[in-house]
Design a protein that fits this description.
Radius of gyration of chain C: 25 Å
Distance between the termini of chain B: 41 Å
CATH class of the largest domain in chain C: Alpha Beta
Bound molecules: adenosine-5'-triphosphate, magnesium ion
CATH superfamily of the largest domain in chain C: P-loop containing nucleotide triphosphate hydrolases
Strand content of chain C: 25-35%
CATH topology of the largest domain in chain C: Rossmann fold
CATH class of the largest domain in chain B: Mainly Alpha
Strand order of the largest sheet of chain C: 6-7-8-3-9-10
Order of helices and strands of chain B: HHHHHHHHHHH
CATH topology of the largest domain in chain B: MetI-like fold
Number of domains of chain B: 2
Oligomer: heterotrimer
Low-confidence stretches of chain C: none
Largest sheet of chain C: 6 strands, mixed
CATH architecture of the largest domain in chain C: 3-Layer(aba) Sandwich
C-alpha cells in the first residue's frame, strides 16, 4: 500500500513538469479559442466583456464559404497528389539495397529540414514572370507570354505538394519496408498480374502507412497560411490567411477565434474517421478469437 | 520483369525536391536580380549580406531563443519520455495525448491560441513569449525521440549498477543518462532546427523588436530583396546539411 | 507414363556464382517428385524457375510438352507453397484460399463451394474467419496448400513446406501431405534437404549438389545403388574403399586389392577387368559384427575380417561401431534383437569379426574425397 502510494508520487513528480507546461501553454489556450469566439470585439482591438453569438453568425459572410471550400479542395487534391507520388516512391525506396535506401532517405529528409520560408521563396523565384519555369514553358510553347504562373490556386497547390510530400513518403516507406515482398510473388503465383498484386496485396498491407501519410499531409495543409500568403495572391487565399488578416489587419480576435474554431472542426473530421475505423477494426478480430481479454 | 514506374517517380520527385534549391543556389551568384537569365558571376550578394546588420541581429535573437528553448525542451521532453516509458496509467494516456497533439495541430492554430492566451492575461509579447511558444511545440519531438531510445534500452543494466552498490540517482547519472545521451542530443538537434526554422507561430507571438531570423527573411521577401535572401539561403542550406549529417551520425552510433 | 514436367539443360548464374549447371530433370504425371540436396545447392532456384520468378540463363522448362519458360508466373498452371507460407496477413483463411479463384473472376457460388470443399479437406472449416496471425504453424501450412491447390494447377511446387515445423508435427504433416496428394492426384514437386522426408514420400528423387544433378531415380535405387560418392554419403551413411581389381572370378565377382586394408571380394555391378580402379561403397548396416567367427556359408562370397573396436555409440534402435582395420576405420550399424538378455555386448577395445556379402557392396561412377566429410564420425575422431 505504502509502496504503491510512493510509486504514484514518483509518477506525478516526473510527469508534472511537462504536463503542467503543456496544460498551461497548449491545452488552456486551445480551449481559449472556443471561448473567445463567443466574446464581442472592441473597436480598439481588445476583447470585450460579456458574451455574444454575433461572431458565430458573421461566419455566414458570403466570402467565407468560398474560402473554406477552396481550402478544403486544395487540401484534398494536394493530399491525393502527395499519396500518388509517395506510394511508388515509398515502394521503390523499400526495395533498393540498404545502402541506397539510406542515401535516398537522406535526400528526402534534407529538403524538409531546410527553412520552410526559403523553400516557398524558391518557388516564388522559379514561378516569377522572369523565372526559369516560365522561360522553359515559353520556350516549349506551353504558355502564352502573358500567362501568370504565380498568385493563383495552382501555385498554392504546387507548393503544398512540394512542402508536405516528404511527410507522405516517410510513413509509406516505413510501412513498405515492413512489407514481406514474397507476398507479391505469392499473388503472382496465384494468377494475379502485377497491377492486381499491387492493389490487392501491397496496398492493403501498407494501410497504416497510408493513413498516417494522409493525416500528416492533410492536417498541416488545411492550416496552410504562409504558402498562400507568398505564392497565392487574392485568388489563392485559404482559411489561414483570413485568420491572420483578422488578427494583424483588423485586430478582431473573436472573429479570428471563430475561424480557428471552424478550422479545428474541419481537422477533427478525418481524425475521427480514422479513430473510429481503427476502433472497429480492433474490436472485430477480438470478438472472433474469443476468450482473449 | 519489374515495373519501372516506381523508379521514374522517385527520380522525378527528387528533381522536383532539389530543382528549386539548386536554382536558388545558382542565382545567389548571378548578377541578374530575378535570375531569368545568367548575367555573370558575382559575390556581391554575399557581401551585401555580410554588411546587413539587421540580419545579424535577427540571427543572434534566433540563436538565443533556439538554444534556450532547446535546453528547456530537452529537460521537459526527457522527463516526459521517462514518465511515458515507466508508467502506463490513465494519467500517462492523457500525458501522451497532450505531448502528441501539439505536433499534429497546424501551426497557425497554435500561434493563434497562444496569442489569445497572452493577450487575455495581459502579457506583453516579447522574446519570452516566443521562447514559451517554441518550448511548447518542441517538447513532443524531444519526448518521442528519447522515448524511442528508451524502448531499446536494456533496463537490467540499471539494476546491475544498483546491484554493484550505486544508489538510484548515481545509477541514473552515471549509467542511464550517458547511454541515452545520443537520443537526447538528437532530440535536441531536432528541436533546435524546428525553433530556428519556425515562422508561423513566431509571427503570431512576436512582440515589436523581437525579430527572429525567419521574421527578418519574411519582411525582406515582402520588401523584395531576393538576391540577398538567395545568398542567405545557401548559407542556411549548408548549415542544414551539416546538422543533418551529424544527427544522422548520432543516430547510427546508438549504443 | 509420359514425361510431364521437364527441365532441359537448365543453367542459371547469379553474378559469377553458378547456381544451376546444366540440370535436366523429368517428372511424371501425378507423382510426388523430390528435389533433395544440401543447403544452397540450387533447389529453390530450380523451383522458382519452374514457377516463373526467375529466368534460366539457358535451357528450358516444358510442361505437358509445351515450353513454359517465357510465360510470366500468373500465366503458368503451376502453383507454389512457399517456404514461409506467404499467407496474406490482411485476409482471412477463407479469403486467402479464395484468392486465386477471385482473381480468375469465377462465379460467387462456385468460389463458395470450392473454398468450403478445400476448407473441409484441410479440416479448417472452424477457422475460416481467422487471420493468418491467429493460426499455428501446421494450420498455416495447410492453408497455404489449400490456397495453391484450389486453382487446380498442373503441378504443385512445395519449397521445404515442413521446414518451419517441429519434428513431431513434421511427421504428421508429411502423412497428411501424402493423403492430400492421393485425393487430388496433382503432380507434386517437393523440395527438401531432409533425406528422410524425401525417401518416405517420393516416387522419384533427384539429388542436387552445388547446382549439378547427381542422380535421379526411385528412393530405393538411390539408396542401394548410389552412382557417386556424394549420393552415397549424403543419403544415409557408408564406408568408402579405393581398390584395384587383381582377379576376376566367374565374371560376376572381382577381388580387389585395397591399400592399407585387406583384399575384398566384390560383386561386379559394372563390367570390370584386372587392373581397373574401383571406388566402393559399403553401407554400415550391411556389415555384421560379432565376437565369434561366423559359420561358413555355401557360396563363399563373403568377406571376413578381424578388427579392433575403437568407438561405440548406442542409439537405442541400433548401435554404431567404428572398427579399426589396417588404415581404415569401418562404420558398422547393428540392430539388436535381444540386447539385454543374452547378447554379449561388444565393447570398446574388443577384437571382433566383421563380415559382409560381396553382393552388398556397390561400385561408384564418380568419387570425390571431400564427400567423405558428409559421413558421420564418432565424436572422438583421432
Ligand atoms: N537472387 C539471388 N541473388 C544472388 N544469389 C542468389 C539469389 N538467389 C539465390 N542465390 C544463391 O544461389 C545459391 C542457391 O540458392 P537456393 O536458394 O536455390 O538454394 P537452396 O538449395 O534452396 O538452399 P536452402 O536449402 O538453404 O533453401 C545460394 O548460394 C544463394 O546464395
Ligand atoms: Mg531453398
Amino acid at each position: 500500500m505504502k509502496l504503491s502510494a510512493r510509486k504514484k508520487l514518483n509518477e506525478w513528480l516526473i510527469t508534472l513538469p511537462s504536463l503542467t507546461w503543456l496544460a498551461i501553454f497548449f491545452l488552456i489556450p486551445t480551449i481559449g479559442i472556443f471561448v473567445i469566439a463567443f466574446k464581442p470585439a472592441n473597436i480598439d482591438g481588445s476583447v470585450g466583456s460579456g458574451w455574444t453569438w454575433h461572431t458565430i453568425f458573421s461566419m455566414s459572410d458570403p466570402n467565407y464559404p468560398a474560402i473554406i471550400w477552396r481550402t478544403i479542395w486544395l487540401t484534398c487534391v494536394g493530399t491525393a497528389i502527395c499519396l500518388l507520388l509517395a506510394i511508388p516512391m515509398g515502394y521503390y525506396i523499400a526495395r533498393v539495397s540498404p545502402r541506397w535506401r539510406n542515401y535516398l532517405l537522406m535526400l528526402v529528409i534534407v529538403p524538409f529540414w531546410t527553412n520552410f520560408l526559403i523553400r516557398i521563396f524558391a518557388w516564388k523565384v522559379l514561378l516569377h514572370p522572369e523565372g526559369i519555369v516560365k522561360q522553359i514553358l515559353l520556350a516549349l510553347n506551353l504558355v502564352e507570354p502573358n500567362t501568370i504562373l504565380l498568385y493563383n490556386s495552382g501555385a498554392v497547390l504546387l507548393v503544398i505538394v512540394y512542402s508536405y510530400l516528404p511527410f507522405a513518403i516517410l510513413p509509406i516507406f516505413a510501412a513498405a519496408e515492413k512489407f514481406d515482398f514474397s507476398l507479391f510473388e505469392a499473388a503472382l503465383d496465384l494468377g494475379a498480374n502485377r497491377f492486381q498484386a499491387f492493389i490487392k496485396v501491397f496496398l492493403p498491407n501498407i494501410k497504416v502507412g497510408l493513413i498516417s501519410a494522409t493525416l500528416m499531409v492533410f492536417i498541416p495543409a488545411l492550416g496552410s497560411y504562409i504558402i498562400p500568403e507568398i505564392v497565392g495572391g487574392p485568388d489563392g487565399e485559404m482559411i489561414g490567411n483570413k485568420i491572420a488578416q483578422r488578427v494583424f489587419v483588423d485586430r478582431n480576435l473573436p472573429h479570428a477565434s471563430a475561424l480557428s474554431a471552424i478550422l479545428t472542426f474541419v481537422i477533427m473530421i478525418p481524425m475521427l474517421v480514422v479513430l473510429t475505423a481503427q476502433k472497429r477494426e480492433e474490436t472485430i478480430p477480438q470478438k472472433k478469437v474469443g476468450g482473449r481479454p | 520483369m519489374r515495373s519501372k514506374i516506381p523508379f521514374y517517380t522517385t527520380i522525378c520527385v527528387l528533381i522536383f525536391f532539389y530543382l528549386p534549391l539548386l536554382v536558388l543556389a545558382v542565382n545567389s551568384f548571378n548578377e541578374s536580380m530575378y535570375g531569368g537569365s545568367w548575367k555573370g558571376f558575382t559575390w556581391k550578394w554575399y557581401i551585401q549580406l555580410f554588411h546587413n546588420q539587421e540580419i545579424w541581429n535577427a540571427l543572434q535573437k534566433s540563436l538565443l531563443i533556439g538554444i534556450a528553448a532547446t535546453l528547456m525542451a530537452m529537460i521537459l521532453g526527457t522527463m516526459a519520455a521517462f514518465a511515458l516509458h515507466r508508467y502506463s496509467s490513465k494519467l500517462q494516456f492523457f500525458h501522451y495525448t497532450l505531448i502528441y497533439t501539439p505536433m499534429v495541430v497546424p501551426e497557425i492554430l497554435m500561434g493563434m491560441s497562444l496569442l489569445l492566451f497572452f493577450v487575455a492575461l495581459g502579457i506583453d509579447l516579447s522574446l519570452v513569449t516566443i521562447f514559451i511558444a517554441h518550448v511548447t511545440f518542441c517538447i513532443g519531438y524531444v519526448a518521442l525521440v528519447v522515448l524511442g531510445q528508451l524502448q531499446e534500452f536494456d533496463f537490467s543494466i540499471l539494476e546491475a549498477a544498483m546491484d554493484l552498490g550505486a544508489d538510484w540517482w548515481t545509477a541514473i547519472r552515471k549509467v542511464l543518462l550517458p547511454l541515452l545521451a545520443p537520443g537526447i542530443i538528437a532530440g535536441g538537434l531536432l528541436a533546435f532546427t524546428l525553433s530556428i526554422d519556425d515562422f508561423v507561430v513566431t509571427f503570431f507571438v512576436a512582440g515589436p523588436g523581437a525579430t527572429t531570423l525567419p521574421l527578418r527573411i519574411y519582411s525582406m521577401m515582402r520588401k523584395g530583396a531576393p538576391t540577398v535572401i538567395n545568398a542567405l539561403s545557401v548559407i542556411l542550406l549548408i548549415i542544414t546539411f551539416i546538422i543533418v549529417f551529424f544527427s544522422q551520425r548520432l543516430r547510427q552510433s546508438k549504443p | 507414363m509420359a514425361d510431364f514436367l521437364e527441365f532441359v539443360n537448365v543453367s542459371k548464374s547469379f553474378g559469377s556464382l553458378k547456381v544451376l549447371d546444366n540440370v535436366s530433370i523429368t517428372v511424371q504425371r501425378g507423382e510426388i517428385f523430390s528435389l533433395l540436396g544440401p543447403s544452397g545447392c540450387g533447389k529453390t532456384t530450380l523451383l522458382r524457375i519452374c514457377a516463373g520468378f526467375e529466368q534460366p540463363d539457358s535451357g528450358k522448362v516444358l510442361l505437358n510438352g509445351k515450353e513454359i519458360t517465357p510465360l510470366p508466373p500468373h500465366r503458368r498452371q503451376v502453383n507454389t507453397v512457399f517456404q514461409s507460407y506467404a499467407l496474406f496477413p490482411h485476409l482471412t483463411v477463407w479469403e486467402n484460399i479464395a484468392f486465386g479463384l477471385r482473381i480468375a473472376k469465377k462465379p460467387k457460388a462456385e468460389i463458395q463451394d470450392k473454398v468450403e470443399k478445400y476448407l473441409d479437406m484441410i479440416q479448417m472449416t472452424d477457422h475460416a474467419q481467422k487471420k493468418p496471425s491467429q493460426l499455428s504453424g501446421g494450420q498455416k501450412q495447410r492453408v497455404a496448400i489449400a490456397r495453391a491447390l484450389i486453382n487446380a494447377p498442373q503441378v504443385l511446387l512445395l519449397d521445404e513446406p515442413l521446414a518451419a515445423l517441429d519434428l513431431k508435427l513434421r511427421q504428421r504433416m508429411l502423412v497428411e501431405l501424402d493423403e492430400i496428394h492421393d485425393k487430388v492426384g496433382i503432380t507434386f514437386l517437393f523440395v527438401t534437404h531432409d533425406q528422410n522426408e524425401a525417401m518416405s514420400i517420393s516416387d522419384h528423387i533427384a539429388i542436387l549438389n552445388a547446382g549439378r544433378l547427381e542422380q535421379m531415380g526411385k528412393p530405393a535405387e538411390i539408396y542401394e545403388a548410389p552412382r557417386t560418392s556424394f549420393v552415397a554419403a549424403f543419403i544415409g551413411d557408408t564406408n568408402f574403399f579405393d581398390g584395384v581389381v587383381i582377379e576376376t572370378k566367374e565374371t560376376e565377382y572381382s577381388r580387389l586389392h585395397i591399400d592399407g586394408f585387406v583384399d575384398v571380394l566384390v560383386y561386379n555391378d559394372k563390367p570390370k577387368k584386372v587392373g581397373d580402379f574401383v571406388h566402393l561403397s559399403v553401407r554400415p548396416e550391411k556389415i555384421s559384427i560379432a565376437h565369434d567367427e561366423p559359420a561358413k556359408t555355401e557360396k563363399n562370397h563373403r568377406n571376413l575380417i578381424r578388427g579392433k573396436v575403437e568407438d561405440v555409440i548406442y542409439l537405442g534402435a541400433n548401435t554404431k561401431y567404428w572398427v579399426r582395420v589396417g588404415e581404415y576405420k569401418i562404420a558398422i550399424s547393428k540392430q539388436h534383437k535381444r540386447f539385454l538378455l543374452d547378447e554379449k555386448p561388444i565393447l570398446w577395445g574388443d577384437t571382433v569379426w566383421l563380415f559382409w556379402e560381396a553382393d552388398d557392396s556397390y561400385m561408384l561412377d564418380r568419387y570425390r574425397a571431400e564427400d567423405e566429410q558428409l559421413l558421420s564420425l564418432p565424436s572422438s575422431v583421432d
